[in-house]
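G., before I forget:
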Amino acid sequence: MNFKLVFRITGKTLLVEAGAMLLPLAVGFLYGEDPAPFLYTLPLLVLVGAIFSVLKSDDHFFPREGFFAVALTWLLVAAFGALPFYFSGYFETYIDCFFEAVSGFTTTGASILTAVEPLPKGILFWRSFMHWLGGMGVLVLTIALLPNLGGRTLQLMKAESPGPIVSKLVPKASQSSKILYSIYCGMTVIEIIVLHLVGMPWFDSIVNSFAIAGTGGFSIRNTSIAAYGSPAIEIACTIFMLLFSINFALYFLVLCGKVKQALRSDELRFFLIVVVGSTALIAIDIWPMYSGADAIRHAAFQVSSIISTTGFASTNFDLWPEFSRFLLILLMFIGACAGSTGGAIKCSRLLLLLRSIRREVRQVIHPREVNVVKLDGQVVDEGNLRSVHIFIGAYMLIMLLAVLLVSLDDFSMVTNFSAVASCIGNVGPGLEGVGPMSSYAAYSGFSKLVLSMCMIIGRLELLPVMVLFSANAWKRS
Amino acid sequence: MNIIIVGEGKVGYTLAEHLSRENHDVTIIDTNDAALRRASELLDVMGVKGNGASIATLREAGVEAADILIAVTGMDEVNMVCCLTAKRLGAKYTIARVRNVEYAKDMAALKGELGIDLVINPENATALEISQLLRFPTAANLETFYRGRVEMISFRVRQDDFLVGQPLSEQSKKFQGLPLLFCAAEREDGEVIIPDGSFVPKVGDRLYLIGQPGGLGSFFRLLGRYTQKSRTVMIVGGGRIAHYLTVMLEKLGMKVKIIEQDMERCRQLSEALPKAAIICGDGTDHELLEEENVTAYDAFVALTDRDEDNLIISLYALQQGISKVIAKSNRQNYTGIARAAGLDSVVSPKLITAGQILQVVRGMQNSKGSVMNALYKIADGNAEAMEFLVNETTRHQGVPLRELHLKKGILIAVLIHQDRIIIPDGSSVITSGDTVILVSRNHRTLDINDIYEDSRIELGGVQ
């Protein structure tokens, strides 16, 4: 393991984080708030980042360095991102701050705050800005800004980008990240304008746009989007949550004029079928509770919010019938498309699993039949299929283990199960104790750490964190 | 520039490596998943799976916007069709590797029809390089400039050479009047130095000397190392390189014996090369080599398919006391090992091809500036020797060299002014119409203007 290189990459990313922190600092100034939380954090961050990034190392870069660097970077970025919260004095312990920061960067949106409205604007801005940074990935940003990280940056992109198969849009990795970030920025700007037009104040529209773009879900109102009480805002949010859960490579295709090719994507079709199907089922289920169109609007909002792993709420869905609640839990597992800012298992993985199952059944009926699994008309490599199966298996095992650990706090099984499913899927709210109108504050420090790890494991798609905790990776040989 | 490489073999990979390092947008097309994955994991390039001769695949790789398409798959026919299709689809410049000896003759006539702008033949280029070495066996490597009137050779400093241990400036008296220059040195640990007067040669250094062929000959006579051109050559391995090489050597009046294992191939060679002696047998078997009296030959060339075999039998030939031994090896990491064992002349078809193509790419990148006539990768690819034609775009014309601020690691080795070959000193000036030969340690020279300290032209910035 080339530790020096790993630390250099981490250091550069910390410097980028320091740069990003200037923005909430400026917002704080604008509103005349005490800049102390950020002024205390910045020197620490710059110092550690600078020390790491001046390390001399050779550029020997292999997958294990990539995975290791990504996991370490995320832990440190979250640890430092938590400091402004800590210095602000609105949080009780550092673990609470760490939980909040991890939840921010992993775009989960699970909060330990029971009331967010009294927080200073600078802190609120930073909380949501973390979603925006974490959505596309902090390392991808670092690659875009500092392309000289070493030759083999694809390893980093691979480890950080969601989805079973990661490929570049254009030959150069740094160029690829720039294109992704440009699309991301462009869509965010459009969203800010649209949200303002449908009636949000500027600050709210910016902060909520960050949360939706990163599919995060931190709200600056205690009752989330429901607080605005405006159907227009809810419809606009629904549309943007869905847009940000589609593979960004498809937008690149559209920009290149290949609209047809983008619409032919198997994953996109699967995603849309799931969204439309679940919306219809839930709308029928909750029809008696709302009047007509409201049922469809709330169903659509909640389905997009959960499947995109954003976690906003337009109403307290914890009060919905059992069928709808469980369907939402299922959506937490499915998650968004690969290559989007959303989390969880991802539609393409699920689609590949379903197709593998179909193949396995056919294999039993016709033992000698030769069958390949295809996605978008292309044969999927058996190696990729295997990693998809293992991913889904490991995802479930890690989740069950985490539920067991969290159960030490003696809350109801629905609370624990939905909390863990929600954290590892980077969704945010769960049911009952951690429902959309409550928070994670009641959990013990240990449980918060477990849930924080779940969020990072989920965001980085298991392997990087498992590499970080594998004894083999720490050996020099 | 947008460059598409079809075929991720040895040459394709090397090209992708060099071109992506020079900041070009490289896309590789191959049918093999594993090869593509290797390339996209190790290099900053994009892989497209598919048949490079099919329109759909080429479109997916963005052929419409491609500046250069390089077809280097294993099959000549595929390469040709590839270029033909790509040209129709809008690729600006196409390069095809065509290796087959029979096609080689037809290519001149067919190039235009097939939409191929440049045909490269690594085997032929390698054979040419080997034949030059056999003409001047003292050199471990030899490159030619200015239509062969300037040569650059490398040799290893030995214990008893008078060069050892004294700075070059104090030795200039010994070979005063000889028009030559030490233009690069490679230490045994791989460090590359562009020498000045204070450079002290050490035993084991590999020195690069540039000058006119006559002057170089005189220098080696002074050094007591001059050897006549080889008259008899034994080649092990009867592949395409051996075929091309034998034709070239026979034109130079040398006697050639080829040892080849495959009977069928022996028959083909015997039919094509009536003057050469073709032996059917295992060239790695020393009994056979002794039987064929290997020690009586002036030169020994190992050209089998396996790099390892080539190096081992070359070492055996060296041990037998053959004065000139050349081995083919595509693996760069073996070159160092071979050199440590005393084998200096190792040719790599892969590097030779990469050099040829890089020369074209850089020439295209800099179509407005000075014209690059030649580019050679020397010292294991860590330095480059280049020949430029000076034109109006070149800055600082008429300024004496001593007043110019050149970038570090760059040396103006030879100036050719009005057909006179000059080893420049501080008072020499560059004027339009001159040919300049440069040696550079940094890989960012596209134009003569790039060697000046005040140059702001960045790589890839000029089109």
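The longest helix of chain B spans residues 349-365. The domain at 2-120 of chain B is CATH 3.40.50.720 (Rossmann fold).

More on Monday.
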